[in-house]
Amino acid sequence: MGKIIISGASGAFGHAAAQWLLEKITPQDAILLTRTPAKLADLAARGADVRFADFDDPASLPAAMAGGEKMLLISTARVGTRVGQHRHAVEAAVAAGVRHIVYTSIIAADQPGNPAIVKNDHRATEEIIEASGAAWTHLRDSQYAEAIAGPMTIPALMMGGKPDNCGDGPVAFVSRDDCVATAVGVLTQPGHENQAYVLTGPDLITIPQAMAMASEIAGKPIVVDPVDDDAMFAYFDALGAPRHASDIAPDGPIPWSSDDMVTFGQSIREGYFAEKTDWVEKITGRKPKSLRDVMLAHKEGWPL
């Protein structure tokens, strides 16, 4: 097995993937890319090859990619501008000889009717990778269970409820840990070339059902108020959220835009997340965590 590159290795997903990868391969064969190498001192100490890379600076990338055979391209955070970053990364990787690119995408990225604007960046990146000449694997993750157990549940418990535009659209919420383990499995196993895998948890659950589960675990009420998309925009406006990705203030208090959130909810409502698969277990050899498992792990951080 040749050397394996992980991009964004100082982010939450990337750092977890890097730690897991070091359990699977010789540490010196792991190339970890980051704009902040000091944050990866722990992994460098284990023998990993930590390199500076900035996807906004293509000149930094040939040296960063040199010697890699496979790459995990973790989608960057900047919705609306990240496709250019991803293109720089893919072009540099292929030029350096990388033969297989694994990408963290989203469920239903390839479905034209999917209204979630986040899918646009992901499908554009998938197409760049498919056209690059490298083999590809798209990991189309469902919504993270951790996003429900933390950022959704905590304010809902504090307020006693939440507005929601997801209706009764079901989601098989998937633990980020399981997505990390699956990504590392694809990087270290043969036979995953030119495949798209939808990664989900074990249960299809609606947002109202998820909030009822959190309420039961916490022993505190959560009332879900079903609202339409206009009311959801008004709610985010009241929080001071920017409407569009282009309005997000760098290092501002809210790093997301309401059109992203509202169309994500619309996508759930219209059934684009209503898929359950067994790829996590097939690739990792372990059963995926349930939403309840993840909530119980987060409970100590809830306002009880």
From TrEMBL:
Gene3D superfamilies: NAD(P)-binding Rossmann-like Domain, UDP-galactose 4-epimerase, domain 1. It comes from the Bacteria. Residues 8-189 form the NAD(P)-binding domain. Pfam families: NAD_binding_10. InterPro entries: NAD(P)-bd_dom, NAD(P)-bd_dom_sf, NmrA-type_oxidoreductase. This is NmrA family transcriptional regulator. It comes from Sphingobium cupriresistens LL01.
